[in-house]
Amino acid sequence: MSRSLNFNAFGVDIHTGQTTIGVWAPSSKEVRVHVENGDVIDLKEAGFGFWSANTEKIKDGTLYKVALDQESALPDPASRFQPQGVHGYSQAIDLSKRNWSDQQWHNLALEDYLIYELHVGTFTSDGTFDGVVGKLDHLIELGVNAIEIMPVAQFPGERNWGYDGVFPFAVQASYGGPRALQRLVDACHRKGIAVILDVVYNHVGPEGNYLESYGPFFTDKYHTPWGKAINVDDAYCDGVRQFILENMRMWFRDFHIDALRLDAVHAIKDYGAKHILAAMREQLDELSAVSGKPYYLIGECDLNDVRYITPVNEGGYGLHAQWIDEFHHALRVTVGEPRNGYYADFEPLIHLAKSFRDGYVYDGTYSPHRKKTFGNKASEASGSQFVVFSQNHDQIGNRMLGERSSALYSEGLQKVMATAVLASPYIPMLFMGEEYGEKKPFLYFVSHTDEELAEAVRKGRRAEFKDFHGEEDAPDPMAVATYEQSKLNWSALDESNHREIFTFYKRLIQLRKKYEAWHRLDRKHINVEVCSDSGVLLL
Amino acid sequence: MSRSLNFNAFGVDIHTGQTTIGVWAPSSKEVRVHVENGDVIDLKEAGFGFWSANTEKIKDGTLYKVALDQESALPDPASRFQPQGVHGYSQAIDLSKRNWSDQQWHNLALEDYLIYELHVGTFTSDGTFDGVVGKLDHLIELGVNAIEIMPVAQFPGERNWGYDGVFPFAVQASYGGPRALQRLVDACHRKGIAVILDVVYNHVGPEGNYLESYGPFFTDKYHTPWGKAINVDDAYCDGVRQFILENMRMWFRDFHIDALRLDAVHAIKDYGAKHILAAMREQLDELSAVSGKPYYLIGECDLNDVRYITPVNEGGYGLHAQWIDEFHHALRVTVGEPRNGYYADFEPLIHLAKSFRDGYVYDGTYSPHRKKTFGNKASEASGSQFVVFSQNHDQIGNRMLGERSSALYSEGLQKVMATAVLASPYIPMLFMGEEYGEKKPFLYFVSHTDEELAEAVRKGRRAEFKDFHGEEDAPDPMAVATYEQSKLNWSALDESNHREIFTFYKRLIQLRKKYEAWHRLDRKHINVEVCSDSGVLLL
Q1: Where residue B153 falls among pLDDT bands split at 50, 70, 90?
Q2: What pLDDT is recorded for position A471?
Q3: Is A56 among the catalytic positions?
Q4: Global pTM?
Q5: What does the H/E/C string look like for B427-492?
Q6: Rg for chain A (alpha carbons), in Å?
Q7: B487 has pLDDT over 60
Q8: For residue A285, how many other CB atoms are within 10 A of its CB?
Q9: Has residue B478 got a pLDDT over 60?
Q10: Which residues contact B311 (CB under 8 A, 6 or more apart)?
Q11: CA-based diameter of chain B, in Å?
Q12: Which of A4, A224, B101, B207 could form a disulfide linkage to A267, CB 3.0–4.6 angstroms apart?
């Protein structure tokens, strides 16, 4: 009895003239799809907890819900579109309809990536994918060649960083939905820009999580900062793993995404014989073989464990690259950040030099802040396996007042930080607005529609910063003003001091592209010297 | 600031003329040792939560307790001896005192091991290590060359399988204590028998767990069948890891143990950059380099993940070998075991053949009982990396009535099972009494002194088997009779039918030793064929 699971239909899949619908509901005895017009479709059990049907009652644009065991109908966990928000009808979308114009596009080598992280909602006044399209020429002038889009999976309301997404297959309606994302990627590719999408496989948001109604998507074997862990190694995990794998395939296949940035992979707890990340890498390589295009997986990882970026056949989990927050922390204390919280672990200059040399600062050494020995050596990893930055959405937005570097440091220090990142033997990443010294904050904002939850988030946020600023100061994450305040002020680019910073960034990027020593990510050819007396670090 | 932890003193360490005492108590502000005669010793902080003192007030045999922050004095978590039980005084023991006579002994190659698992308390009527010494000639006559001793860490009362141990450094007093274990190992070595000790690093027992009073030995990041997991990767884990590593070193260094059997390594959850098992292996190799003797780590592992037995430098955790329960399950259903519970996953003959060929039966295939795809391939692993058996303490004792194979199967089938194990390309293991078809059961027994706990265990045991046998049938685990019933009846060896089985086992072992095809653990040279119609499996 050696059965294996090969059923990948999640949600509605529209081919030419035919629609398949698939639902994973391993505990249900009956699964029905309720179309908005009153039609009902009975699904048949297809084994391993999967239910499916071929139907002509669902077409591109049809609104529907799913009813389990004659309970109230719910949105489809694999919905491709939630035009009415997280609690409303799911809408069938034929993702194959787009006439792509990016046939000439070929993904860049990972080591050539110059990344620009952006949040769709606050990048332009529109707050949409089409708004982003309007700014691509600015990015080309700047010289970056890859945008990294913060998560776009449907979240409650219209204002969210994206990490509260609850429909991993549905592109946020207020950003323009799936077709608008396809348009953006197509436009990027025509202009020679790669697209990285930030995706969250370690938790789902607190409002609109219908996954739990469908099956054991979660396990209490492990605790994460968001509660129960996503079930990738407990009973019934095959369905969850297929859900994740199919979601990954969808982005590359149907949206032409070039790379995924995987949120907090350290919180994906997998003690099975094949780690879900390794399974993802294997499937990615299969996709690459079919399309003939390289694709990449980049993890956010807070473990300093080289296993995550080691090839699968060498016992690793096979990520192409990972973020390295320690470079950021070391850089920040070097330019004067007070050594509180996790910054307490970092020494100016010395640790920055360490990160330039070795990637991980803590690589088998005792971390006083973590109260344990931490990390292992990444000396054999290539420079292209690490993404570095002097600020990102988290480092800015997790400050109570969301101050960017421009609000904290002199222009001189901003330039020092930019140089440290863009002259590093790693993949550099900027955060939107950084390139012209945007002064507006990037605050923490949400728009939960569940009042109780909204109040809990408000309170939590106030409590988090109480010791530092007193209760009254924390901006209300639920307020529209908090969101509006966080939108970029593009008119700043017309002012000479901002223009000067922009010119500096442009020039640095030109230098990085021009000189081999700047863009060859081979750390063995880099010599790092520290002169502590004068505060100078020589590369 | 790159500090590292190099302090390994746990408990009392007596050198010539000097005694060091070390206590890990990272939250305490004051640590004192109270000697039974009224002397008090102040310990000094030594960094990283360690406290220590050199003293002349503690000598070989001194009774003492430890007081934290002027609370009631407690036994030492690293006590070497608890002569008054788990709640009593700890006793200082100079483990270096023994005059060892095993200088000629050199550990066997792992592939030559023929293991005999025994439980000290029920192996002889004495129930002591000295009792075991008296039976070594029987084992030599049988032909095995390694004994595996079920856990001996001090547990509550005098009757326990050993998995409720709470003092990992203290050898069970009722078995004879540490000096008697040294005598046993010495005697084994003089007779050419290796000694494997079963140790438990995944949990401690429910009574007498003073570890929690001393420091964060546990973490709630993970759930295990025993509740909170041992903290090997959370804050303060360095102290816990050193505790485990020093415990491992003690067995090899001070007791001349040849190999450790690590209980349920799948329940040791470690997401740090160096898995505790890999750290153990590295330290073991250092010990080997110093002593010039090979030592082995053998894990009980229920994950079918070859990572556990892959070398550390290839991304593995470095165990030399692991138990393989699936061989047992496949063998049992082949001889007629009803396919209930986990046996439901196994098919007669076909799965036994699979295990002969590949080790793991589920190696990336869907397991209906576990409700998930399970395992990876172990095809590159050597046969000497797997320990197989047709019964062991768990498989027998976890039956309500503790029946051995001899109470369940005909003599013919017992011989078939013995042949399957002893002709396998793996390391064979017998369970005490199996070699002569002992008819007495091996029951589950405990002797907790905490009445509430004892009653809870009683109830739990009854509930576990209620569906099968009705409440009244489950033997009382607390009853002395349950323990006495489980003791081997050596006089059976005088009866001809038992003698015949014994002769059969002897002969099989002789054949295994004589023929290269039987003892060469190279699975690539073995051809396994199944003839399902006739129920024949050809090797």
Answers
A1: very high
A2: 55
A3: no
A4: 0.94
A5: EEEEECCHHHCCCCCCCCCCCCCCHHHHHHHHHHHHHHHHHHHCHHHCCCCCCHHHHHHCCCCHHH
A6: 23
A7: yes
A8: 14
A9: yes
A10: B318
A11: 77
A12: A224
* Whole-angstrom distance, CA of residue B255 vs CA of residue B15: 16
| Helix axis angle, A237-255 to A177-190, nearest 10° | 50
CA–CA distance, B69 with B32 (Å, rounded to integer) = 8
Residue A429 and residue A145 in contact, taking contact as beta carbons nearer than 8 Å: no
| Kind plus residue range of the DSSP H or E element containing A394 | helix A393-397
3-state secondary structure (DSSP) of residue A148: strand
Q: Determine whether A130 is exposed, middle or buried from the number of CB atoms within 10 Å of its CB (0-12, 13-18, 19+).
A: middle
Residues in chain A within 8 Å Cβ distance of B269: 271
Residue with the two structure tokens 């740090």: B272
Q: What Cα–Cα distance (Å) separates residue A217 from each residue in A84, A232, A242?
A: 24, 8, 11
pLDDT band at B1 (very low <50, low <70, confident <90, very high): very low
Contact (CB<8Å) B373/A4: yes
A358 CA: distance to closest CA in chain B (Å) = 14
Which chain B residue shows the shortest CA-CA distance from A26?
A: B371
Query: Model confidence over B197-212: pLDDT tens digits?
Result: 999 999 999 999 999 9
Q: Which residues contact B389 (CB under 8 A, 6 or more apart)?
A: B117, B323, B327, B328, B395, B421, B428, B429, B430, B431
Is residue A65 within 8 A of residue A90, CB to CB? The reply is yes
Per the document, the length of chain A is 539
Q: Of B232, B229, B221, B223, which is closest to residue A224 (Cα–Cα)? A: B221
Q: Does A517 contact chain B (CB < 8 Å)? A: no
- Note the pLDDT of residue A3: 35
Which pLDDT value is given to residue A472? 62
Q: Alpha-carbon torsion B202, A264, A257, A54, what sign?
A: positive
By the 10 Å C-beta count (0-12 exposed, 13-18 middle, 19+ buried), B299 is classed as buried
Q: Which residues of B touch A222 (CB under 8 A)?
A: 221-223
**pLDDT for A1:** 26
Catalytic residues of B: 263, 300
A532 reaches B (C-beta below 8 A):
no
Residue A71, CA atoms < 13 Å, CB-side half-sphere: 11
Question: pLDDT digit string (tens) for A190-248?
Answer: 999 999 999 999 999 999 999 999 999 999 999 888 888 999 999 999 999 999 999 99
Whole-angstrom distance, CA of residue B255 vs CA of residue B13: 15
**What value does the mean pLDDT take over residues A439-458?**
94
Given strand A18-24, what is the order of strands in its sheet? A11-15, A18-24, A50-55, A44-47
Block residue for tokens 């005088």: B494
Secondary structure (3-state) at A280:
helix
The whole-number average pLDDT for the span B291-304 is 96
| Interatomic CA distance for residues A22 and A529, integer angstroms | 59
Please state the rounded mean pLDDT for residues A131-148: 98
- Give the pLDDT band of residue A401 (cuts 50, 70, 90): very high
Question: Taking a contact as any Cβ pair under 8 Å apart, which residues of chain A between 32 and 61 contact chain B?
Answer: 48
Tell me what ipTM this predicted complex has: 0.91
Question: Do the chains contact at B221 and A222, CB–CB below 8 Å?
Answer: yes
A222, A310, A374 member nearest B315 (Cβ)? A310
Short-list B410, B363, B358, CA closest to B388: B358
Q: Cα separations (Å) of B366 from A280, B304, B315, B347?
A: 18, 13, 25, 14
